[in-house]
Amino acid sequence: MLRCENVTFVYKNEEGEGRKVLDNINLNIEKGSFVAILGRNGSGKSTLAKHFNAVLIPDEGKVYVNETPTDDEKKLSDIRKSVGMVFQNPDNQIVATTVCEDVAFGLENLGVPFDEMHKRVDDALRAVGMYEYKNAQPHLLSGGQKQRVAIAGVIAMESECIVFDEPTAMLDPKGRKEVMETIKKLNSEMGITVIIITHFMEEAAKCDRVIVLDKGKIVNDGTPEEVFSKVDEITSRGLDVPQVTRLVNLLKKNGVGIKGGMLRTKECADAIDALLRERQN
Ligand SMILES: Nc1ncnc2c1ncn2[C@@H]1O[C@H](COP(=O)(O)OP(=O)(O)OP(=O)(O)O)[C@@H](O)[C@H]1O
Ligand SMILES: [Mg+2]
């Protein structure tokens, strides 16, 4: 779906001084995958995300979307249609006065015929569980609901891949949960490739693959189990690990013979329970 080859990117200021923010990134993201990108503030996550739909073009190297290089200006609208983006602040993404107009906005701009537009808007709203709010005013919705409307706008464009840049950062726990469940469903039921930038390790633990950026370089790439089992390394990069992983790591450090790299509460509780029973016997 997406491929980065030796991607380097430099932000230049008015004096022409440069600052290298992406440093030789090589990355291949398969269709249908569900990937988290982690990294401390300023590590280059959003800059990388903007390369995935040609908002930014690399200074060196290339980014390919379905084998089309993002610097091919004739293909720009195809690229933007294939890869949609959802950002942190739901209020900045609402453009219309009703939910359905908001979801239809991008389609109107594309000149999609009226009947098809209605069908796509309805389908997209159903996919995010917001159909019953079709005629509601967006500013009256909760943060999580607004974010789901923003997601519906991208689904209506029939994007194959959606890049989420901290989609839950401004939400309360309930909103965070409903948005994460929606995102998970897009991937598992609709086959949409999902890339999610997040500071919540519990969200990253739900993905198939975790990529860690530090100072513009990829420093870790693997399954959540693989990446989070390196607790000390992850912590040294300014990141946290899921609570369960932290607990298991502390137990191990204190000489408890428990398997590392655990991510799920149930798995951890069962392992501790088994250890306690062993001790009793
Ligand atoms: N438009 C810009 N012009 C100049 N420098 C920028 C610009 N946008 C970002 N930067 C700088 O590039 C670096 C990487 O920024 P980026 O937004 O990609 O980081 P991030 O990993 O998304 O951080 P955060 O977790 O805070 O969102 C930072 O040092 C930032 O200050
Ligand atoms: Mg960012």
Can you describe this structure?
The chain has 281 residues and is α/β, with parallel strands linked by helices. Helices cover 41% and strands 22% of the residues. The protein has helices spanning 45-52, 76-82, 99-110, 114-127, 143-156, 173-190, 201-204, 224-228, 231-236, 243-253, 265-280, and strands at residues 2-12, 18-29, 34-38, 60-65, 68-69, 83-86, 161-165, 193-197, 209-214, 217-222. The strands form 2 sheets. The chain has a 6-stranded mixed β-sheet with strand order 6-7-8-3-9-10, with helices on both faces. Bound molecules: adenosine-5'-triphosphate and magnesium ion (MG). Magnesium ion is lined by residues 45-46, 165.
Provide key terms for this protein.
4-stranded antiparallel β-sheet; 22% strand; 6-stranded mixed β-sheet; binds adenosine-5'-triphosphate; binds magnesium ion; Rossmann fold; alpha/beta; 2 domains; globular
Helix content: 40-55%
Named CATH topology of the largest domain = Rossmann fold
**Which sequence of SSEs, written as H and E, runs from N to C?**
EEEHEEHEHHHEHEHEEHHHH
From the spread of the alpha carbons, the general shape counts as: globular
Which regions are unreliable across 5 or more consecutive residues at pLDDT < 50? none
Short description:
With 281 residues, the chain is α/β, with parallel strands linked by helices. Helix content is 41%, strand content 22%.
Topology:
Layout: E1 2-12, E2 18-29, E3 34-38, H1 45-52, E4 60-65, E5 68-69, H2 76-82, E6 83-86, H3 99-110, H4 114-127, H5 143-156, E7 161-165, H6 173-190, E8 193-197, H7 201-204, E9 209-214, E10 217-222, H8 224-228, H9 231-236, H10 243-253, H11 265-280
Parallel strand pairs: 3-8, 3-9, 6-7, 7-8
Antiparallel strand pairs: 1-2, 1-4, 4-5, 9-10
The structure holds adenosine-5'-triphosphate and magnesium ion.
